[in-house]
Every structure is written in structure tokens, then in C-alpha cells.
Amino acid sequence: MIYLKIMQAHLRFTLRRSMMIFILFIQPVLFVGLSYYIYKDSSLTDIGSKIFIAGALTNFWACIVFSSISDVERERWMGTLELIFASPLGFKHTQIAKTIACLLLGLIPAVIAYLLILLIGLELSFAAGLKSLIAAVVLIAFMFSLSLCLSCFFAISRNSRVVMNAFEYPFFVLSGFVFPISMLPQGLYFLAVANPLTYPVALFRQAVIGEKFYLSWDLLLLVSITLTSFFFILALWLFKKIENYVRISCSFSLV
Amino acid sequence: MSVVIEVINLSRSFHRSQSLRDKSNDTVEALRGISFQVNKGQVFGLLGPNGAGKTTTLKILSTMLAPSGGEAKIFGLDTFGQEQQIRPFINFIFGGDKGFYWRLSAVEILTFFADLYGVPRSIQKKRIPYLLDLVGLSIIDAQRNTESYSKGMKQKVQIARGLINDPKVIFFDEPTLGLDPASAIEFRAIVTNLAASGKTIILTTHYMAEAQQLCDQISLIDQGRIIAAGDTQSFIELAGKHNIIEFSYKAQESSKIALLIASREPLFHKEQKIAFSVEDSNKAKALTGQILQQFDPIELKLRKPTLEEAYLALTGN
Asked: Residues A228-246: what's their mean pLDDT?
């Protein structure tokens, strides 16, 4: 119940930021348009589904980065981070509720991308069924766990704003949001393989549009679930650790 | 009276670096072993110049910072280690524009923080309008985004936020910063009423008249150390200024003033107005006689020093 109240407040606050309005409503249009021009002259089939995945996932990630991770930095600058931290509910539960709210917000661009593809007149041929559902759940759970971990790192360091923007665009390419990582040059390919976000994204792409990956579906599912669990456990451990760390290092406030 | 807050030999240091590359080990000692205690229902004033360690003390007590050494206890519970048990019963109000969601209205901010403190919605419905009324914010203003608020209105929201959980212990860090005189008077009445209802309060302020009016006990911090402590009167006496003789003289008496200054250092001397501090009533009588004999003063006053004068004397200003 308390999570619902915090989510409600966070959604209200987030939807009043012009940056989020851009990410939620304008950016999907731009990304779908961009993906359409990238794909339209290619020999690939089922480009509607590929554009949908690109448009939905890139904006989903942008929502996570800008409304959840960078939220910690924003709260620090507003001076509210330490108020949240010193409240009985605390940073952990507040951040979990906010991240869930961000995940919900992240579905808005997906709906916009879907409608745009229909508007353009492209065909969408998703592989519905259990596999797709499992892949979607694993992907969302992974994003949730990773976001919690990153928000802890952002809370620990007062210099996190330096790397904040680096989290958005490189991951579009290095995680296979827009096109499969097999299309990347060798150097970037190795970076993409080392990127944990690649695996749940590949799982989703494989389940929904049957795109091949260097791992089989079963192995990909196992890796994705293992990574999700790892980041979730790491987040819980970090939440516990930072409770004392931030008060010793004074990283929650600017003073 | 029961002790609510106990600070024993508290110290806190900060490592300061200018940038990511800066690996220098520059340590700032914000607190160097301060000790004090505050009883239930008392208003305790922490005074001192900027950077003295007042805010650091409040942040340690409000569980936002860890001490580097010593102990800080509220209701006998350590603020570092037993903070979960303390947090529901305390709150803090910091001066200035920080600590604010600018895109939310005052009502939305108060609702959010009430939720963080686990205040049930049924209680929120009564408490939020009550607090808005207490700080003097109209319900129409309270439903507007705080982005358009004046500094004083923002400070009123901060005060209401700090009272949202009906705390037993309240920390005020320069709470009247930015408030107009009328609002500051209202705020002082709120603090007086809170103390009368049994709340324990620690207050930092730069306004000495405010401290003199509100505080039962005062500690003066300078460079992380307590340099004077006690009630307002004993604090003034500690400064060594028991009486002040203040008089205005005529322009043609300027040469005689130079002779007087040569024999006794004035407390202040500005625009034909001069003041001296004297330790006891006999010396005060003697100096008054000397002034009346040598000058034809426009105005002559014998008065007790203010807290501000004691503060300036103790901090070496």
C-alpha cells in the first residue's frame, strides 16, 4: 500500500517534468521514425516488429535512466535525498516504489511505438505465447534489478552525474535494442557480449521475432535469470551497505 | 527533567577533494568533541558563525550523518546504529530553498512526506490543513505548485513538513531564514507553543534576538568546539560584559572623545555614538560620572548587554 502511495507521488512529479514528457511522448515518435528509415531499404523481413522492438526498448531504457537512476542525482540537488533517507520509510523502499513507477511509465512509449507502426502501415507479426511472456517478464525484472543497483551507485557517489548521460545512448547500440549485436564491428561486439543487458534483450528478441543469438533459448533464459537474480541480490546488499556508507562519506547531501 | 538528547564528546571530520582527480587528503574538522544535553520540553540554541559546526551537529542528531567519534543519543538511542527506532519520533527543518519538490504543490509535498513517515491518510486529512493553517499558508496557495512560491512561503512549507509526523524532537536549522518579520514572529510563537506542549527543540540561528527570545539554553560553537554554554543570562555574563554605557555626544566634543578612547577601549563607536562595557555597578557609576562631568551628552543609557554583543565578544568579532 505504501508503495502505491509513493508511486503515485513519483508519477505526479515525473509527469510534470518536460524532459519526461519528451521521453514518453516525443522520443518514441523520433525513434520509430529513425528506425523506419534505417530499416526500410534493407532486405530484412518483418521490419515492423523490429522497429517496434527498437522503439519500445530504447524508450523503456530511457525512462529507466532518466526517471529512476538520474532521479537520485536530481533528489540530491534538490536537497530531498537526505530527507527521504532520514525518514522512517527510508531510501530503499522509496527507491523500489519509484523504480516500479518508472517501469510502468516505460510502457507508454511501447504503446505509442505500436500505434505508430500500425499508422505507418507496417505488419507486426509477434510470436505470442508463453515464451514471449516469459522473455518480457525476465526483461522487465532485469531492468528493475539493474536500475536499483545503479541508483545505489548514484547515491554513493557525488560525481555520478559525470557518467549519468553515458548510460543512455551507448546501451542502445551495445545491448541490441535497435539491431542484433551480431551486426556490430568486432571490437564493439565484444563489449556487447560483456554487457549484461544484452542477454535479456536477446532473449526478448529471440522469443518475439525469432532472432538468432549465439546462445540457445534455454541457455539464454538461464543466463538472463541468473543475471537478474545477481543484480537483485546485489541491489539488496547495496541498499543495506549504503545505509551506513553514505552517512560516513556524506554523499547524500551536497554539503 | 528527563534528558532527551545527549551529546558526548562528538566529533566529525570531512575529507575534502576538489575534483575526481584530486587525491589530496585534505581533512576538515567540523566538530572537535562537543558535549551537551537537552531536557524534555527545552528549546536549545546552537549559535556560532558560518562553518562553526552547527548544521553538522544537527545532521548527526537527525540521523543523516555518522559521527567520526563520540556519541549522539536521542531517548538513549544512538543516532548511528539505532536510527530506525529514532526516526519516527524526530524531524528537521532546514532553512533556504533546498529540500523541496518544486513541481509539486504544498499539499502534495506534505502528503508525500506524511506517507514517508507512515502517517495514516485519515490523520493526514486533518493534520495537513491544520499545519497549513499553523504556518499561515492558505489552502489556495497550498494547491499551487511551489515553484512559484516566495522564499518565505517555501520556508513555511518546510516548517509544516517538519511537523508532519508530530515529532517529539525537532531540529531547526536557521528556520527563519528568508521569512519576513511578521512571519518570523509567527514562527517564534509556533516554537514557543511546541515547547510548551512538551516538544524538545534544537535551534540554530544567526538572529540573536530570536535565540534570546526562544532558547532556554544556549551553546556557542566556534571552529567545532563549544566555547560558551548556559542559559541566556549566564551566557551574557560569560562574555564579561555586565553593564553597557552608551551615549551620544555633540560634534564639537570629538577631541575629548579621543582622550576617553585612549584610556578605555569602546565596545563600538559610530557617528557620534559610543558605548563602553563595564564589569560592575561601581565602575558603571564612576564612568557615568566622568561622562557627565566631561561631556554634555545628547542621550546617555546604562543597560544590560544583548545576546548579540555577548556573541560578538565570545567569537572574537
From this structure: 92
**Residue B94 contacts A where some CB pair is shorter than 8 Å:** yes
Q: What is the pLDDT of residue B1?
A: 64
Tens digit of pLDDT for each residue in A102-138? 888 888 998 999 899 889 888 777 766 888 899 999 9
Calculate what percentage of chain A has a pLDDT beyond 90.
Answer: 27
CA of B98: which chain A residue's CA is closest? A79
Residue from A87, A158, A160, A243 to probe the interface with B (highest B Cβ count within 10 Å)? A87
Tell me the three-class secondary structure of chain B, residue by residue: CCEEEEEEEEEEEEEECCCCCCCCCEEEEEEEEEEEEEECCCEEEEECCCCCCHHHHHHHHCCCCCCCEEEEEECCEECCCCHHHHHHHEEEEECCCCCCCCCCEHHHHHHHHHHHCCCCHHHHHHHHHHHHHHHCCCHHHHCCEHHHCCHHHHHHHHHHHHCCCCCCEEEEECCCCCCCHHHHHHHHHHHHHHHHCCCEEEEECCCHHHHHHHCCEEEEEECCEEEEEECHHHHHHHCCCCEEEEEECCHHHHHHHHHHHHHCCCCEEECCEEEEEECCHHHHHHHHHHHHHHCCCCEEEEECCCHHHHHHHHCCC
Closest CB to B98 among A78, A88, A248:
A78
Are the Cβ atoms of B103 and A16 closer than 8 angstroms? yes
Query: What ipTM did this prediction achieve?
Result: 0.86
> For the whole prediction, is pTM greater than 0.95?
no
C-alpha distance from B304 to closest chain A C-alpha (Å): 38
